[in-house]
Specification:
Chain lengths: 432, 314
């Protein structure tokens, strides 16, 4: 493994409160503070002038579809898309086929990851058997098999009692419980945000209240049991408020926002374009602003993408019938920079923190730092470079992105995982 | 002014002038319907496919009749006989219809937005015959056409639409047409079926039947489906009728010259009393007849015909 000398980068490491133009050195896959002159001569030099060097990005909410739905994405292609987006660590959801409610499936995933992935991928397990919300999955065994959290993903556990038992049980292993907050009884047949746009378009609405109820439920259960519940992809302004109050009481609640929910609103659905169909749905401008303010004051802890690949032919349907979800990994950084840094004047190191140290910490992952001796997981990006994103030319196996064809600002130049360059100037030098 | 649209997808996107062009053309075609030989050769040699993926009697028959009056060949496909039951996608079904050399496609579909979706895929004109709870443009056109026959200009006229508005494509198309034509529209019904969000479309929302019906010149009733009751949107059909059903007493609150409309199918005794449906103020069957003329106009214009060329000379 070559020694790396990354030169002249703006090094941002939120964990060390570091933000200065300097060099970074990598020896044997680890970050080191300094490099002797002789070693520098032999090192592979990466000129990062004008670029930001930060910890490799961390996304704790992706769908890599393997096993079972490998026509959409695989561990290999998902990891490549992640590398192209600057991500070096991701956490994948258990809604595969079969679902990850048993240790055999987790072991299979780990074997495939070890064989095919160019980045670090951590699996999650299900809360309930078959993700059916009826009986608890073998949570302790799943933990032993290597899951970093449990979640029933889009099939939010509806029974309050079962959820209470799940978080109480998971707390024994200090295993976070991630929840997609949705009261199913209020969202039957729903395909978009309920409001003026759904009224106009004649599409079935998914009201904020269906999220708010479960967010409130989870806050109550977290405070009652002391368990850590992580609230996925918050979309409603009322939910932001509920979480803010809970945090002032010290509740062990954490929450994420997606790039699409902070960038887009349900106005985008005017032409029934299924590339804007996801769950939870895009909401109103008021909701979008509330999410941004929630990120600013720490109510929402992190950015996560909910990277959800679907093939062209699956998305190319009547709006009601198309599956929910969009790609996220390859556009997350530029979209987030646009919304938070350029439009809303967030400081760049703070945004880096939202996408590195903080998500790693929430899931207890060894990532998100450039400290001396840490694994050399690094993202180099040009914050002001404009480029046209073409999802068809991207690295995901699917191309269902609302940003395809658009000019984005901010481009990942180099991604390094454990000292290995896995993405460089638009290419995957070590794609296996 | 010439007609420049190939598709008829919504009334939301039509201008007032375009709506009036369709009405003028429909009036000319309506005169041809009085003749002993009702056919005109306007679309001779053209093939129209009625792709009805959701059940329909009235609309489908009216489109069928309209196409035949225009001398087009008509093929009707319904959900049961289409390959969608074998899992074929709408795109593939539609592309096959186009490859079979159809000149125009009329689509009825349960999914809102599907006519727009087809219009982006196909080169031939796409006519929306009702898409989910979104729009039913030809119904909105025939309803406003019927209102004009009775009231003349609709500017400032008080129109009440009463019933299940939330799930109604008929209501939405009428709202767009009527607001463009300057009518004063009030939506009435239980708050669960008539949410306040409709006020953003330029109409009033009321849950007080008496004040809403006072001096109204048109009352349009929409069918109340018992499925909505099962979904908890209102307690029972009986309660609906007692609160919002149109009966003789309530009809007396209307303007004396008011007309009573219904797009069908009617639930007698639920949203409307039988004697009113059959009474002198009811124009329900005129709506059906006008549906042929309006659809002739739409098919003719979207096939490339021009309004001024319609000459119903004997």
């Amino acid at each position: 493994m070559p020694t790396l000398w990354i030169r002249n980068a703006r090094v941002i490491d939120p964990a060390a409160k570091r933000d200065a133009v300097s060099d970074l050195f990598v020896v044997d896959g680890l970050i080191v503070d300094s490099l002797p002159l002789a070693a520098r001569k032999r090192a592979r030099k990466i000129d990062a002038t004008g670029q930001v060097a930060c910890p490799g990005l961390v996304d704790i909410h992706v769908h890599f579809r393997e096993p079972g739905q490998t026509h959409k994405e695989t561990m290999a292609t998902g990891s490549q898309a992640a590398a192209a987006g600057g991500f070096t660590t991701v956490v994948c959801m258990p809604n595969t086929s079969p679902v990850a409610d048993n240790t055999g499936t987790i072991q299979l995933m780990k074997d495939v990851i070890a064989r095919d992935s160019v980045i670090r991928i951590y699996p999650t397990g299900c809360i309930t058997v078959g993700m059916k919300g009826q009986t608890l999955a073998p949570i302790g065994s799943l933990k032993r098999a290597g899951v970093v959290a449990i979640t029933d993903d889009g099939d939010c556990v509806q029974s309050n009692d079962l959820m209470r038992r799940a978080v109480e049980y998971a707390r024994m292993f200090d295993l976070p419980v991630m929840d997609h907050c949705q009261d199913h009884s209020m969202t039957q047949g729903a395909v978009m945000n309920e409001g003026v746009m759904s009224t106009r378009l004649g599409l079935r609405g998914w009201p904020n209240a269906a999220e708010d109820l479960i967010v409130a439920r989870n806050v109550i259960l977290s405070e009652y049991t002391g368990a850590h519940i992580h609230l996925q992809h918050i979309s409603s302004r009322f939910s932001v408020d509920i979480i803010r109050r809970a945090k002032t009481r010290g509740a062990r609640i954490s929450a994420e926002a997606t790039p699409h929910h902070i960038a887009l609103t349900d106005e985008s659905l005017a032409t029934y374009d299924t590339h804007f169909k996801m769950n939870p749905p895009l909401r109103t401008e008021e909701d979008r602003q509330a999410l941004i303010e929630g990120l600013r004051d720490g109510t929402l802890d992190i950015i996560a993408t909910d990277h959800a690949p679907h093939t062209d032919y699956e998305k190319d349907k009547e709006f009601d019938f198309a599956p929910n979800g969009i790609l996220g990994l390859e556009t997350a950084l530029p979209v987030t920079l646009e919304v938070l840094v350029r439009q809303n004047k967030f400081k760049l190191p703070f945004v880096v923190d939202l996408m590195t140290r903080r998500p790693a910490k929430l899931m207890n992952l060894p990532a998100g730092t450039l400290a001396n001796g840490a694994a050399a997981d690094i993202c180099l990006f040009a914050p002001d470079e404009k480029w046209v994103y073409d999802a068809k030319m991207g690295f995901s196996k699917s191309s269902n992105s609302p940003w395809s064809g658009q000019t984005l600002t901010g481009r990942v130049k180099t991604t390094i995982v454990g000292g290995r360059v896995v993405f460089s100037n638009g290419r995957l030098p070590q794609a296996r | 002014m010439s007609w420049n649209r190939r598709h008829l997808l919504t009334l939301e996107e039509l201008s007032l002038a375009e709506i009036e062009q369709i009405h003028t053309t429909a009036a000319a075609f309506k005169r041809t319907l009085q003749r002993s030989v009702k056919k005109v050769p306007a679309l001779r040699g053209k093939t129209i496919v009625n792709l009805f993926l959701e059940p329909s009697t009235r609309t489908r028959m009216a489109f069928d009749m309209a196409a035949k009056r225009l001398s087009a060949d008509v093929i009707s496909v319904d959900a049961a006989s289409s390959s969608t039951t074998k899992g074929e996608t709408l795109r593939d079904t539609a592309e096959n219809i186009q490859a079979l050399q159809a000149d125009m496609i009329v689509i009825r579909h349960a999914a809102a937005g599907s006519p727009l979706y087809l219009s982006r895929i196909l080169d031939i004109p796409v006519i929306n015959a009702g898409d989910g709870a979104h729009e039913h443009p030809t119904q909105g056109l025939l309803d406003t056409f019927t209102m004009k026959e009775h009231l003349g200009s609709l500017r400032g006229r008080k129109v009440v639409i009463l019933g299940d508005i939330l799930f109604s494509r008929v209501a939405r198309s009428n709202i767009h047409a009527l607001t463009k034509m300057g009518a004063d529209v009030t939506l009435v019904g239980p708050s669960t079926l008539v949410p306040q969000s409709f006020t953003e479309m330029g109409v009033s929302v009321s849950h007080d039947l008496k004040s809403a019906l006072a001096d109204a010149e048109v009352v349009m009733l929409l069918r109340i489906q018992h499925e909505r009751q099962a979904a908890g949107l209102f307690p029972s059909l009986g309660e609906y009728t007692s609160m919002f059903g149109l009966n003789k007493t309530r009809a007396s609150w209307l303007n004396p010259k008011a007309i009573i409309m219904h797009p069908g199918p009617i639930n007698r005794g639920v949203e409307i009393d039988s004697e009113l449906a059959d009474g002198p103020r009811s124009v329900i069957l005129q709506q059906v007849t006008n549906g042929i003329a309006v659809r002739m106009a739409v098919l003719y214009l979207c096939a490339g015909g021009q309004p001024e060329l319609v000459t119903p000379a004997d």
